Please model this.
Amino acid sequence: MAVAPGPRPEAETPRLDPGRRLTRQRRLVWQTIQEIGPHCTAEQVTASVKQANPRVARSTVYRILADLCSAGDVVVARLDAGGLRYELAAAEHPHAVCQVCGKVIHVGDELLETFEEHLAATVGFRTVRIDLTVNGVCRDCAAPGRRATRRQRHDHI
Amino acid sequence: MAVAPGPRPEAETPRLDPGRRLTRQRRLVWQTIQEIGPHCTAEQVTASVKQANPRVARSTVYRILADLCSAGDVVVARLDAGGLRYELAAAEHPHAVCQVCGKVIHVGDELLETFEEHLAATVGFRTVRIDLTVNGVCRDCAAPGRRATRRQRHDHI
DNA sequence: TTAGCTGCAAAAGGTTTGCAAATTA
DNA sequence: TAATTTGCAAACCTTTTGCAGCTAA
Model:
């Protein structure tokens, strides 16, 4: 398995693995991910792409997302039990997910480097990417008098 | 949504939410999770349970796992694109997943508290549980001359 | 006795795949 | 032109649900 190179700044066109072609659909998916922003689902991407061109198939979007990931331009996160979340590798960051309303908050990643160093030193593990999700309750939902507005499918987490 | 109480040391029988019954199946699933050890899939649990009693249904195992989670005895992790992983809350810890061979390594959680404090102070987020997965390459697979032996379904992660 | 649990079978939801036709380099 | 990509539809896999019969308290 090829371990993808590190993130790079946002670009006009996606990076391509050798022999790969830059098609209309690929360009469209790439733009869409930049527009929607971080932690979007495949479903969201597909919907936006179909607005621009209804003939693009869902499976095509999935295939392109997989390619973008393997090229290292996009990364996947598993925030909740719904679909996988995609984001530009350049925009990657830890997430905090509210268990009550489902809101996703971005959090800093200052502490992660320490973790990597620790792992390399103790078990010789080479870190490629750290996936950190904080589950809890956001300020709004913790406020007195507030009620839940959305429950997640796997609310037993 | 009920936010479950914190973990407790390994016990003979699972904790039950009020009004819940301790059935043969529940006891069996509970024992099985302790035997298999951390980050087991629902499928693994079901297979082991069926060895002891082939009549136990898959759906029953899922329902019991959900109950154990809601009681706070078991927690879920999303390590890879296969099924969810379950483990005793008492055994919870961050994971490092090797992208080449799929092996899971346990890592310490010394750094996580700092993260919680930071989040509470900056955005008022109350942390219930931190889900930390490190993706990378383990010492064995990084060794020169080694080849991949297993690819994950979503190997583009 | 009776609310809660189980087994079965079928549905749901997200993702992947096979294949012929279209398209890019 | 030749190899890659696409669109479509169907398959897949994990998890959930409906319901009638069973069972722990």
Chain A has two domains: 24-88, 95-156. The domain at 95-156 of chain A is CATH 3.30.1490.190 (Dna Ligase; domain 1). The longest helix of chain A spans residues 58-71.
